[in-house]
Amino acid sequence: MTTGKIFDVIVVGGGPVGSRIAYRVARAGYNIGVLEQKKSYKNPVCCTALVSQECVTHFELPREMISNSFSSARIFSPHGREIRIRRNSIQAFALQRPAFDYELAGRGDERGGGIFFGI
Ligand SMILES: Cc1cc2nc3c(=O)[nH]c(=O)nc-3n(C[C@H](O)[C@H](O)[C@H](O)COP(=O)(O)OP(=O)(O)OC[C@H]3O[C@@H](n4cnc5c(N)ncnc54)[C@H](O)[C@@H]3O)c2cc1C
């Protein structure tokens, strides 16, 4: 890879963890580059992307990224028995995972770093 840039830190893997680390390191004042082997964050994505309210709040996720919310669930045992759970408040959110990945990756760009795909 040739970018002409010099980075203080390189993160290998632009998943949620790599992107979050990139964000934190950039906030600490370092120029960081993320190398991601995928060509993009487009579908298909191997993740249901169900997260808690705590996740949405902690990561300050924009509402547009949330495709659905849930206050109940049906759980099936291997023998077909069913348990139904219902709460009065929302317990989980389904995110648009590619949008989530883009959002987190973009946050690490603060000091002119960036994510490099297809590496
Ligand atoms: C079917 C499925 C359903 C899931 N459902 C949920 C759910 O509902 N809710 C939830 O919270 N979690 C869910 N998860 C888990 C969630 O996807 C993972 O916890 C999360 O993606 C882990 O993030 P990560 O950054 O550690 O790893 P990853 O998301 O795996 O990211 C690692 C990145 O590193 C890249 N990479 C690896 N090696 C290299 C290399 N040598 N060079 C360059 N790039 C590299 C990979 O391409 C990848 O993009 C699900 C997972 C699966 C498989």
Helix and strand arrangement:
Layout: E1 9-12, H1 16-27, E2 32-36, E3 50-51, H2 53-58, E4 66-70, E5 72-76, E6 82-86, E7 92-95, H3 97-107, E8 114-117
Parallel strand pairs: 1-2, 2-8
Antiparallel strand pairs: 3-7, 4-7, 5-6
Bound molecules: flavin-adenine dinucleotide.
Describe what you observe in this structure.
With 119 residues, the protein is an alpha/beta fold. The protein has two domains: 1-44 and 97-119, FAD/NAD(P)-binding domain; 50-95, no CATH class. It has three helices and eight strands; from the N terminus they run E-H-E-E-H-E-E-E-E-H-E. The protein has helices at 16-27, 53-58, 97-107; strands spanning 9-12, 32-36, 50-51, 66-70, 72-76, 82-86, 92-95, 114-117. The strands form three sheets. A three-stranded parallel sheet has the order 1-2-8, covered by helices on one side. It has a three-stranded antiparallel sheet with strand order 3-7-4. Strand 5 and strand 6 (82-86) form a beta hairpin. Helix 1 (16-27) packs parallel to helix 3 (97-107). The N and C termini lie close together (7 Å). The model has no long low-confidence stretch (mean pLDDT 90). The structure holds flavin-adenine dinucleotide. Flavin-adenine dinucleotide binds next to helix 1, strand 2 and strand 3. Flavin-adenine dinucleotide is lined by residues 12-18, 35-38, 46-51, 119.
